[in-house]
Specification:
By secondary structure, the chain is mainly beta. It contains no helices and 11 strands. The strands form 2 sheets. Strands 2, 4, 5, 6, 9, 10 and 11 form a 7-stranded mixed beta sheet that branches. It has a 4-stranded antiparallel beta sheet with strand order 1-3-8-7, with no helix packed on it.
């Protein structure tokens, strides 16, 4: 299984970015998949997740209303649209996947990270 995250960069506060995660070796449409981030000096945290079985989408409280997770099953790609970015969103963002039915059971496969820096 390979997950390749891309789309990070430097953006001003209030700006937008769209992260992509291309997957191979796993079918994202049948998996629990999500985005996580780790800021300098902080623990990794879950940002957003889609569970394989029926359950609400998960969004971390600080990103609700600003970030949108989606997937394109035909392209086997996961996305994270990030709007109204804030400096506190600065982190390395990772995508992850698992064949488990829910995001809450943990992720088994991790991609390399993509750096998001929000700064003026």
């Amino acid at each position: 299984v390979q997950l390749q995250a891309s789309g990070g960069g430097l953006v001003q506060p209030g700006g937008s970015l769209r992260l992509s995660c291309a997957a191979s070796g796993i079918t994202l449409g049948e998996s629990s998949i999500g985005w996580f981030r780790q800021a300098p000096g902080k623990e990794r945290e879950g940002v957003s997740c889609i569970s394989a079985r029926a359950s609400p989408l998960y969004y971390e409280d600080s990103v609700k209303g600003r970030f949108t997770i989606s997937r394109d099953n035909a392209k086997n790609t996961l996305y994270l649209q990030m709007n109204s970015l804030k400096p506190e969103d600065t982190a390395v963002y990772y995508c992850a996947a698992s064949p488990r039915p829910s995001c809450y059971y943990g992720m088994d496969y991790w991609g390399g990270g993509t750096q998001v820096t929000v700064s003026s």
